[in-house]
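User: Hi! I have a protein structure encoded as tokens and I'd like to know what sequence might fold into it. I'm fairly new to this, so please keep things simple.
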């Protein structure tokens, strides 16, 4: 076998004795496997000496003003997302996602946010999709996406943005889709897209733009 990871989802009720009895013979034939995930309740980590552990249950939720919102892994998938759209949120705490470093998708669309904390996404280095559409944002912090080098998609459509920080997208070298459609932008910084060589789609429609900097798309 050359597999490194196996998963089973139907053994939630196994006792530790049952798992140990099964694994004592089974793992001997799995020399290449490093992680055997039997369920969210039991896992066998294989090495020179296989060990059975019952992992602590991950806290896949966030809390805002005393209300808990679950995050999930769609279709029992391997990535974690937090969908908070249409929750009538007017503000969010800066440490909202601090306990979920493996988040891949955050959707805060269709709320009533007038601002977002500068450190809202701090440390979420696995994040690849952010949706802030249909809020009431008049501005965004310059460092909102700082350090998020795995970001692929950012959507800020249908807000009230009148301007954008010049370095808002700086360093987001994997960015493929960015959209600011449906805002009140009158201009955009000349270097806004500088260095973003993987960009495939840019949305600037439905703004108040009368002209664009000559070098705005240089190098793309």
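Assistant: Happy to help. Inverse folding works backwards from shape to sequence: for each of the 220 positions I chose a residue that suits the local structure. Here it is:
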């Amino acid at each position: 076998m050359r597999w490194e990871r196996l998963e089973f989802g139907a053994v939630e009720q196994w006792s530790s004795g049952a798992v140990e009895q099964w694994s004592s013979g089974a793992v001997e034939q799995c020399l290449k496997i490093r992680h055997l995930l039997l369920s969210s309740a039991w896992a066998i980590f294989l090495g020179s000496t296989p060990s059975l552990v019952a992992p602590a249950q991950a806290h896949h939720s966030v809390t805002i003003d005393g209300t808990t919102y679950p995050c999930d892994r769609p279709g029992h998938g391997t990535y974690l997302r937090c969908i908070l759209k249409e929750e009538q949120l007017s503000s969010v705490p800066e440490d909202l996602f601090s306990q979920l470093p493996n988040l891949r998708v955050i959707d805060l669309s269709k709320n009533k946010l007038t601002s977002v904390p500068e450190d809202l996404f701090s440390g979420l280095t696995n994040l690849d999709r952010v949706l802030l559409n249909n809020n009431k944002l008049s501005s965004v912090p310059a460092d909102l996406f700082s350090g998020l080098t795995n970001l692929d998609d950012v959507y800020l459509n249908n807000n009230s943005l009148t301007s954008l920080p010049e370095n808002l997208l700086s360093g987001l070298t994997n960015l493929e889709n960015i959209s600011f459609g449906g805002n009140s932008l009158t201009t955009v910084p000349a270097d806004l897209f500088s260095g973003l060589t993987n960009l495939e789609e840019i949305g600037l429609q439905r703004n108040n733009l009368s002209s664009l900097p000559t070098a705005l798309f240089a190098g793309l």
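A useful reference point when you look it over: The chain has one helix and twelve strands. Feel free to ask if any position seems puzzling.
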